[in-house]
Amino acid sequence: MKICIILQSNNPEHIWNTFRFGITSLKAKHRVVIFLMNEGSELDAIEDAEIFDISNKIAEYKKLKGDIYACGTCLELRGKKGIGICPVSTMSDLLKIVEDSDKVLVFS
């Protein structure tokens, strides 16, 4: 199955659970794409919390070959040109990802 997850939050617990679900899905042999929108595009600025090891979850997700893309417009609104952990993407790209997905989830 192809799963698209749209992450719209910069809340550490939401981010942590998004990546936990993505990792679980990848281990179950699904294809997973996480698309960062709105506050989710701030992912590279979110630090690990005592309970939420976000950087480890991102590393594990990427090691399992999960894809991550960030909304370019959302980055621009925050004064950023890019994000170090993934490529910059567009609404047209997101549309294609959604069209190609069997399931779309939104974590916000």
Defining key terms:
single chain; 108 residues; alpha/beta; Hypothetical Protein Ychn, Chain: A; 5-stranded parallel beta sheet; globular
Rg calc: 13 Å
Per DSSP, the total helix count is 4
Subunit organisation of the chains: single chain
pLDDT < 50 stretches:
none
Biggest sheet record: 5 strands, parallel
Which structural class fits the helix and strand makeup?
alpha/beta
At the first level of CATH, the class is Alpha Beta
Q: CATH H-level name... which superfamily?
A: DsrEFH-like
Mean pLDDT: 96
Named CATH topology: Hypothetical Protein Ychn, Chain: A
How would you write the strand order of the largest sheet?
4-3-2-1-5
Q: Helical amount among residues, as a percent range?
A: 25-40%
What series of H and E elements makes up the topology? EHEHEHEHE
Task: Tally the beta strands.
Answer: 5
Strand content: 15-25%
